Hints:
Helix 5 crosses helix 6 (about 180-185). The radius of gyration is 23 Å and the shape is globular. It contains 12 helices and 20 strands. Helix content is about 25%, strand content about 30%. Strands 1, 2, 3, 4, 5, 6, 9 and 15 form an 8-stranded mixed sheet that branches. Strands 8-10-11-12-13-7-14 form a 7-stranded mixed sheet. Strands 18-17-16-19-20 form a 5-stranded mixed sheet.
Amino acid sequence: MTFRDYDAQRDLDSVKRIWRECGWIDDDDEAAFLEDFFAAGNTLVATIDGEAECSVHCTPGTIAYQEETLDLGAVTAVTTSHISRKLGFARQLTAQALARQAEAGMAVSALGMFDQGFYDKVGFGTGAYEHMVHFDPANLKVDNGFRPPKRLTTKNFPEIYTAMLGRRKGHGAVCLTEPRLMKAELNWTVKPFGLGYYDGPGGTLSHFIWGEMKGEHGPYSITWRAYQNNEQLFELLALIKSLGDQVNSIHTLEFGELQLQDLLKQPFRHNRATAKGLNEQSIRAVAYWQARILNLESCLASTHLPGPGVSMNLVLEDPVSEHLPDSSNWRGLSGNYIVKLGPESEVKPGEDKSLPTLKASINAFSRLWLGVRPASSLMITDRLAAEPDLIKSLDAVFHLPRPHLGWDF
């Protein structure tokens, strides 16, 4: 068994086999775009008898924290073959990938999880609920007009990628730096459709929707979208409404800064009428992404919170250290720190006996810092503990918008 860097000439066919065994691709047409995918970012593989049997692919990017932008290491694909399950390959490779991200200066890491529990072992904490909305587009309560859009295809991936970078971003918004990932993702779309408008500087793509069609009447799925202002958002919503002449239902993640239920006619009535059907109308909440802090100093230096603030000792436990090789220079973030939270926040190693103490796993502290859940909630379900007065103070200071990535990976 060997852990090493991915080599395209040596490992591409093995990686294709792994993805087929995982069910992530089904045929040669889909496999063809793995070359683009793995040419972007960087990958570690674990081998048995010289053959790659597990791979962890990572991509650099950024994440918005309030008005600040931090460097992000995205874990964009973790795959394990049928013959290498339960050997710890994925966990050890992911831990090594995190060490590389930290050493490269990334402040935060994030990923999409296959289920909760596995990535907790390397320090990831569960992100905020995202809402998957299933609705009849004809039921949208938008009355504004829209113009005939331009049709988008997979050949427009550079424009779509650029529009995603330029989209309106809120707290937690992610951008990845490799356009070849977008090329692969768009080409993996089954029966794709894309519609957009070129109102950007120099006639560039400014706002669009992209997704999958199914049958004559749907359901359709919207998987990618971007806009820069409210006018563009409502033009896209009016465009989506126009599909209601034919399409009975559309599935989409809720647009980050609005509550889509506000714009639906009688959502409860339509939910009852369509329950358990092909075109069921519903809103489902799921927390499918996770994140963790890699660099405490960078993250807290970018943290600007209102009010008088809080000073405290922080005792951190980081489980990633158990899965790193002895040769790793980065050992995670376990340790004792003195933390100041407020308009200007900071952290330094040490302990101040005069201050209250928060004990937390990096998983729970990352969730607190991002604004996923308040301290009073995390102390019930996660590994976070402090005296009641400190918990109350942390609840008061961490008033952040719900983090929303806006970019699936």
